[in-house]
Every structure is written in structure tokens, then in C-alpha cells.
Design a protein that fits this description.
The protein has helices spanning 2-48, 101-109, 147-189, 204-250, 256-288, 300-317, 335-351, 397-402, 409-419; strands spanning 73-77, 83-86, 111-118, 123-131, 137-145, 296-299, 321-326, 330-333, 358-365, 369-375, 423-429, 433-439. By secondary structure, the protein is α+β, with helices and mostly antiparallel strands. The protein folds into 3 domains: 2-150, PAS domain (Beta-Lactamase), CATH 3.30.450.20; 215-288, Helix Hairpins; 296-439, Heat Shock Protein 90. Strand 9 (358-365) and strand 10 (369-375) form a beta hairpin. Helix 1 (2-48) packs antiparallel against helix 3 and helix 6 packs parallel to helix 7.
Length: 440
Amino acid sequence: MKNKINIRLVGIAILAVLATVIGITIVYYGLFQKQVRNDLAISAKLLKDTAYFESVNIDTDEIDLSTDIDELRVTWIDSDGTVLYDNDVTSGELSNHLDRPEIQQALETGVGETVRRSDTMNENTFYYAILLDNGTVLRVATNAKSIWSVFLKVAPIALFIIVCIISICVVLSHLLTKQLLKPIEMMARNIQDADYEAPYKELEPFSEIIKRQHADILSSAKARQDFTANVSHELKTPITAISGYAELLENGMANEEQKVHFYQEIRRNADRLLVLINDIIRLSELDRSEREPAFEKIDLYSIAKECMEDLSISANQRNVELLFEGSECMMVGNKDMLKELIENLVQNAIRYNNEGGKVLVRVTDDERPKLIVKDNGIGIPAAEQKRVFERFYRVDKSRSKATGGTGLGLAIVKHIVEIHEAVIELDSAPGVGTTVTVMF
């Protein structure tokens, strides 16, 4: 970053010097041209006032301006374009000048001027013509360097200035970048300090984003660490039970009646282990999925009805009554994910219900598609309600394990809700029951 700043500062300095040199050269040359024209006009008027050009019958040999006026060419032209006199060459050697723009302009308006460029000499010739009282035209001319010549003349000076400025810029940019970046480096070192303020006002939004991201990374790292520890603990329990019962059977330390019980416990723990592994895999898939799920237009009511039919056996086994109401509710979503969401919510409502309890599932489409799962089960204390969507968190741990709960169902629900950009609300009270509302 420092090198980039240094290079850019030097580049800006070079551009500034070049632009200044070019600009000043153009302005200077414009003023120079104006001064040359003014000088030619004055010279022409002064020559007009002399007695040299009063009559066309004068002996031109008597006119000698070659030494009187340095670097000024004087030409006297008759009204038909014939050159009567020229102080540089013999008039007889010059062609007719009637076609020259400055001569035509002087004959028409009294004054004419033009500039002609000589590419071979890299010079500009300035011409100024004035109409005399006797109908002849007096023209004066002088040579001046072109703007390119002027620029080349100042180029060495400009180059020297550029070298000097680059040297100064290298030193200044090094000091400035060091001074500029030092507070940013300090901010980076103190990124964990929530009270540390950004050194520059412009960096405050960036600083806040970095701090939030840093906090999120730490939170995610802690969540992964906790998740790994919880997974190890959750897997260890059924595996230990299976291993223990298997060891007793292997050593013949159980009678026939105990063997049946041990087999049942092994199967129950194996089933629990399978459910737990499936939930962990599913949650990992939702965490790592980078592709957008396939959304389509679906009927939430039909999906909920299908889930109710699938879960009716589970409800009958626990003597819980399932109630379902609603009407067609079209929305855009992923059918498999929504089915998984409804099954997890209804299974929880059945699992944490009382004997003879009820679970009501309602699908409505008032202002927005809405799913409501309500039960009259054991309920959730207010202090526990914020944590029920955490992984492996259980309100009643003994009851959850006894009914086959993994503690991951509501975590999966939360993921699916976020993917659908929905809102989930929980309303519960111990001994009264729980109502979960999902608004899409």
C-alpha cells in the first residue's frame, strides 16, 4: 500500500509539472504572438510615415532598409501584386504577390495579417500589410520560433524541475504514508478493543464492519468448538450404552429375560444414534451449502397436510391429538425444506406434550403466508426461550432423550427460516403450552 501511495504521488507530481509547463508555454506563446503582431503594426505605421513609399515612381535603389531595421523584412507591393521593393532580395526575383492573403485583405480592408509556418526551419513567419494612400501595399514580416521550438527550449528546465520534484515527493510521500498509515496499523492491533475509536472519521464505517466481522468470526469459532464438544458428548452416550450392553451379552452375564431387555436397549440407542447422525449431517449441509436452493411456487397448506398425515402415527403412540385447519396458501419456497421445517415443529409439539394433549397446526394467508404450530404441552420458561434454537439445547434434557430428541430440530428450523427470509416467533409459558409462528 505504501509503495502504491508513493508511486501515485510521484505520478501526480510529474503530471502537475508537465501540465504546468505545457500550460505556461501555451499562454506565453499566445502573449508572444500578440506582441509580435503589435510590433509589426507599429513598424508598418512608422514606415508608412516615412518618405520612402510616397510615389511608385521613386528609384527603389535609393531605398535601403537592410541595415536600418534588424530581423524585419519590408516588402512594397503595387496594387496589381507586383513587388516594387524588398529589403532581403531583389524585387525582380519575386513572383506576383496578389494572391497572398494578407495583401488581398489589405487591399479590401486597409489592413491584413497572417502567419505562415515553415516546417523545414521550424519557424513561423508573421506578416502585417497596410494599404498606403497611393494604393500600394506595404508589408512587414518577421520570423519567430514555433510553439514546439519554444517548448523544446524549456524542456531541459522542465526536466530538471521534474527530477527535483520527484526527489522531494519520494521523501514527502514516505513521511506522509508513514504518518497516514500508522493510526490504521494501530487500529488493526486494537481491533478486539470495542472502545477503540477509528483514527479517521472516514474509517468509522469500515472499523465498525471489521469489528462486527471479527466478533462474528470469534462467535462462529466458539460455536464450532461448542458444537464439536456437544456432538462428541451426544454421540458418546448411546455408543457407551451399546458397548456396555454388548459386553454384558458377550460375557454371558445376563439371563434370557435380561437379554431381551439388553437387545431392546441396544436397538433403541442405535436408532437414537442414527437419528442424531442424520440431524448432524443435515445441519452441516445447511451450514456449508453455497448454492441457492431451488425455489418454486408451492401450496403451504398441501405440504402441511401431508406432514400431518405422516406424523399421525407418532402422535397416536404418545396419545396426542393432531388438529389441522387452514386453506390454500400459495408461496415461493423449497418444498423439501418446508416439509422438514413443519415436521420438526410438529414433532417437538408432540414430543413435549402431555398425555392426552393437543397439537394444532394452522395455515393462513392473510397479509402474508403464515404457519402456526400450537400445543398445550409442558411449555418453556421465559428464561429458556431465547436459547431453544441453539444446537443441542434442551429445556428438559431427561424428557428429550427419553422421547428421542436430538436437540438439533429447532436449529434446523432456524436455518430453513433464514434461507426463506422468514420470521419465526415463539410464545410459551410453563404448564400452558407453546405457540410457534413462522411468517414468510
